[in-house]
Design a protein that fits this description.
This protein has about 575 residues and is α/β, with parallel strands linked by helices. About 50% of the residues lie in helices and about 10% in strands. The chain has 4 domains: about 170 residues, Rossmann fold (3-Layer(aba) Sandwich); about 60 residues, Helicase, Ruva Protein, domain 3, CATH 1.10.8.60; about 120 residues, Up-down Bundle (Zinc Finger, Delta Prime, domain 3), CATH 1.20.272; about 180 residues, DnaA, N-terminal domain (GMP Synthetase, Chain A, domain 3, 2-Layer Sandwich), CATH 3.30.300.180. It has a 5-stranded parallel β-sheet, with helices on one face.
Length: about 575
């Protein structure tokens, strides 16, 4: 007798022998027991998970001499013929080879005839999605109202290619990928029956490589059994599968942790020399760090990692060397490398670059630590600002001079310490901004509230505030506020012309003054020198630039000013931002 491969020899012959599809076998058994068998089924799912096998078991259950029964005997002539594939009442059709309308016409003619021996004629069409559109259309009427002695079972790996008109006439069952644990249990049983000594790690490696397909796992086990002559070790499985050994994965992880780029690159070269697929290596690395993350956060990783107890201990030991943030960053980087490799013809170079990147990176700082540091810095800023405000005497408004642009003599009424003057950062965070009550919509109102308006806009979008600061409010006419820019600030004016910018500025003005204005941006008609001088006087009157007794300048950035106060720094004249240098 010729040799029978494991995938055929150990094919399930009853519903209870089908692995990993209990949600389907239970439904079918109950349907047969309750005489509720549908006239058409479609079995969808990945390869090697039991679709055709289950279809044959259904055919046995319907035609068994003791049936219909949910547990076929597998000994009667009908069951035996179906098992051997010689039954005249069970017609298995390859959808890829018989995909035309002529084959379907022949099927329609043959379904009229009664079964030769059994109770039912069962048509099993594999890869039914390969039928042409015309063939599907020809099948519709027969499929919807077949003779009572006919049952259809369609199997497909791509159910989305089956027309909805066919799907709506069938009961659909979706087969799942089989779990690694279920595959390992099945492989152990086969190895025991065949007298093969297989280590559990080797079987786990085979199950992982099969990607949820029982048939693929059985084929690989059969192949490795021939290679090893009855004894299978993890190294043997790695050689046949072209997989990367666990030792290499652990060593690569150690090289990343120790920031040893040279060691990681040498290991990559060895992997390439051994003929390993770099893409598979990256995928194995991602899975390795996934297991490390599970070992890091779980108190019982054995239930979440498909590995032996000894290997899980190694995962736990190595996971202690990494932070969760480190592991997540490594997985993210390797995942991006996979995307890059699949879009290009290179594999080794992107992988080596990723390893160099990972070995040169410093430890990731947890987000909680960053937030804690920011809160401490904010607290220091608030306390330092508060103490400085308490230590400084209140200025006498009568002794403060406020030079304003010559074109606007009324602006001399502007005072520096207005109710809406810029507040320190901590105060702005803690107190909501209040609109100025009972003020008229005049240019005096705008000039008085202009510092508060700029700060309000700055809190919402700093870039708009920086552009607007280059302009000067010049007049209010029929609820239209005109803002003038020097010729050198043409770019700033154009940036503020957009609808979004106008809307934000108008809203800020309304929030502060309680009045709503339309905005008009214009370029100054005077020469640049006069315009810049006028603007400089205007900024100084608003407190953007001030000088103390030692002629040390400050910068119109509250955060920088707070930092200068905390660390005892000062602003000096020199090269840098606007001719200023912070020290």
């Amino acid at each position: 007798m010729s040799y029978i491969v494991f995938a055929r020899k150990y094919r399930p012959q009853a519903f209870d022998e089908v692995v990993g599809q209990s949600h389907i076998t239970t439904t079918l058994k109950n349907a047969i027991a309750q005489n509720r068998v549908a006239h058409a089924y479609i079995f969808a799912g990945p390869r090697g998970v039991g679709k055709t096998t289950t279809a044959r078991i259904v055919a046995k259950a319907l035609n068994c001499e003791k049936g219909p029964t949910d547990n076929p005997c597998n000994t009667c002539p009908s069951c035996t013929e179906i098992t051997q594939g010689v039954s005249l009442d069970i017609l298995e059709i390859d959808g890829a080879s018989n995909r035309g309308i002529d084959e379907i016409r022949n099927l329609r003619e043959n379904v009229k005839f009664s079964p030769s021996k059994g109770r039912f004629k069962v048509y099993i069409i594999d890869e039914v999605h390969m039928l042409t559109q015309e063939a599907f259309n020809a099948l519709l009427k027969t499929l919807e109202e077949p003779p009572p002695h006919v049952k259809f079972i369609f199997a497909t790996t791509q159910a989305h290619k089956v027309p909805p008109t066919i799907l709506s006439r069938c009961q659909r069952f979706d087969f799942r990928r089989i779990s690694i644990k279920d595959i390992v249990v099945s492989l152990k049983a086969i190895a025991k029956k065949e007298g093969i000594k297989a280590e559990e790690e080797a079987l786990i490696l085979i199950a992982r490589h099969s990607d949820g397909s029982m048939r693929d796992a059985q084929v690989v086990l059969d192949q490795i059994a021939s290679f090893t002559e009855g004894k299978i070790a993890p190294e043997d499985a790695s050689k046949i599968l072209g997989a990367v050994s666990d030792d290499i994965l652990f060593d690569l992880a150690d090289a990343i942790r120790s920031k040893d780029a040279v060691r990681a690159l040498k290991m990559t070269e060895k992997i390439a020399d051994d003929g390993k697929d770099i893409v598979q290596v990256i995928l194995y690395m991602i899975e390795h760090f996934r297991n490390l993350s599970v070992a890091k956060v779980s108190k019982d990783p054995a239930g979440l990692i498909d590995a032996s107890d000894e290997k899980i201990k190694k995962y736990e030991e190595q996971a202690r060397k990494f932070t969760v943030e480190d592991i997540l960053y490594i997985v993210y980087t390797l995942s991006n490398t996979i995307d890059f490799v699949r879009k290009s013809n290179m594999a080794r170079v992107p992988f080596e670059v990723a390893l160099v990147k990972l070995t040169r990176k410093g430890s990731m700082i947890p987000a909680e630590d960053i937030i804690d540091r920011l809160e401490k810095l904010e607290s220091r800023l608030a306390s330092n600002t508060g103490s400085q405000l308490r230590s400084e005497p209140e200025p006498d408004p009568s002794n403060v001079s406020h030079p304003m642009p010559a074109a606007q003599p009324n602006t001399s009424k502007t005072q520096l310490n207005t109710p809406d003057a810029p507040r320190p950062p901590a105060e702005r965070l803690q107190q909501p901004r209040q609109a100025t009550p009972n003020v008229k919509g005049s240019i005096d109102t705008i000039m008085t509230a202009w510092p508060a308006i700029l700060n309000c806009i700055k809190d919402r979008k700093i870039s708009i505030a920086m552009y607007l600061k280059e302009g000067i409010p010049v007049r209010v006419e029929t609820n239209t506020l005109s803002i003038e820019f020097p010729r050198s600030s043409q770019f700033h004016k154009e940036m503020l012309e957009s609808t979004d910018c106008r809307s934000l500025i108008s809203k800020a003005i309304k929030d502060i003054t309680g009045h709503e204005f339309r905005l008009k941006f214009m370029i100054s008609e005077s020469d640049n020198a006069a315009s810049n001088a006028s603007k400089g006087a205007f900024e100084e009157s608003l407190g953007f630039v001030s000088k103390d007794e030692d002629t040390k300048e400050s910068i119109d950035e509250p955060i920088i000013n707070d930092a200068l106060q905390i660390f005892g720094g000062e602003v000096e004249n020199g090269k840098g931002n606007n001719g200023k240098r912070v020290s």
